[in-house]
Input
Amino acid sequence: MSRRIEQVNEILRSELANLITGNLEMDGCLITVISVKTSPDLRHARVSVSVLPEHLTGTALQEIRKKNSLFSRVLKKKLNLKLIPKFNWVVDANERYAAEINRAIDEMKNT
Output
């Protein structure tokens, strides 16, 4: 991956995290932007998010997707990019898997 793509990914991750924090009204829900992976042509970006508590994941993704066009407009004005990629929002399940592994290790230690 080129250095430019890495820089764009990090800028988008930071800016999207700020936009979610400022524009989504979800009480009792924590949404974290884990990573952004942009295609080499900058037309598409896969945005991985983590949602706590997990039972609000579907609702959180639905609300984020509703604000997708707002996020794109704000980023177009704010960032000096020729193109703002289309965002594909996905849930990052690594946190859940890590918690399950830790729980299994703790159970093994207790037996």
Summary: The CA atoms of residues 38 and 45 lie 4 Å apart. DSSP finds four helices and three strands in the chain. The radius of gyration is 16 Å. Residues 3-110 form a domain with the GMP Synthetase; Chain A, domain 3 fold (CATH 3.30.300.20).
